[in-house]
Amino acid sequence: MGIELSRKEAIRIIQDYMLLHLSIEEKGNILIGYGGKVINEDNDEWIVSEILNIKNNRIIRANYNYSKLITNTYLELKIKEFYDLEIAIISNKNYDFDSYYSCVCCNYIISKKRTLYSICPVCYWEDDFTEGETYSGPNHSSLKDYKLKFFKQKELNSNDDVYLQYYK
Questions:
Q1: For residue 39, which of 14, 89, 132, 149 sits 20 to 30 Å off, Cα-Cα?
Q2: Which InterPro entries has this protein been placed in (predicted)?
């Protein structure tokens, strides 16, 4: 039996690991993605000091916040990968996933509501409300063909531990 952690503790451990192990370039890219000002072509030393500034740690950690739609198994595997520790995430929250929307293509739970042009983080289907064999412009395919392609590809690259799949 491994160490028991809350989900919040496990996420914080992963965030701290990433903060300590990302390269300066990777941290800079995260800060730029958040609108951070780290560009000063005349002074490389200033760029590095700005990236490493403690006030930016919160932004870098926030880049590794995990939705409740990410499975505990995935988080446990990440900590095993990083620290070679067996852990068990103990969660006292029971989420009502029946009120969540699952992707029309892969059936993984992805959000609270269905929105036009939202992109599934599992199969990358861009939801334009097309169904069946109707051609979807954003996806360059029909939903039926995209599903076949996704499930064939999924056999090669399984993501089962990352997201929750919807079963009724």
A1: 14
A2: Cys_rich_CPCC
> Which parts of the chain register pLDDT below 50?
156, 167-168
The H-assigned helical ranges of 34-164 are 44-51, 57-62, 72-83, 143-156
Burial 127-149 (b: 16+ CB within 10 A, else e): beebeeeeebeebebbbeebbee
Nearest to 160 by CA among 116, 119, 107: 107
Cβ pair 111, 118 in contact under 8 A: yes
pLDDT tens figures, 48-82: 777 788 888 888 888 888 877 777 888 899 999 99
Q: Specify the pTM.
A: 0.61
> What six digits make up the tokens of 112?
């609270």
